[in-house]
Amino acid sequence: MSTYRGTFEHDSFLGWLNLFKIRRLQMLYNVGERPPYPVIISKPTVGDVLRNLNKADFGLFATVSFLGFFAARKSTLGLTTTEFVRQRGFSIAWNSIMMAGALFACMNSNNRLTGFVDNGLQWRRKEQRLNKYDFTSEFEEGTIWKFFRLR
User: Exposure string (b/e) for 6-31, b if CB count within 10 Å is 16 or more?
Assistant: First the structure.
């Protein structure tokens, strides 16, 4: 168990359960805001994501595959055609569910690299907002572009 009550270590087999404890599901941050955890790689490649897979991602994949086996079996029992069609339907359903589990594991790894999921690191400063000066707002207010502002 982690130092926080009710959470798991980020690299344990059950670490993926911490995904249900995300309190701030904000994907776009305003100017000066940062993700909840330090960023390891801001734009990870597919190779970076695959190299970053750990026990939590494997646990997520294994759980989805295990539960998907029973879901695929249950969903194909109602097929009243030949045995071949039933077996083929089960194979397609279970492989699709396992691919979804692999996708969830890769998404978790990507979010860990970009700081949206606990990656074992902590910010040195606890403030959510960084102190930055916006150099363009004052200039923009004096031009016609202030009417075309997106934020």
Answer: eebbbebbebbbbeeeeeeeeeeeee
Are 76 and 54 spatial neighbours (Cβ–Cβ below 8 Å)?
Answer: no
Task: For residue 49, name the pLDDT band (cuts at 50, 70, 90).
Answer: very high
Count of CB atoms situated within 10 Å of the CB of 72 = 20
Q: Give the phi and the psi of residue 112 in degrees, each rounded to 5.
A: -70, -40
Q: pTM of this prediction? A: 0.69
Q: How far apart are the first and last CA of the chain?
A: 41
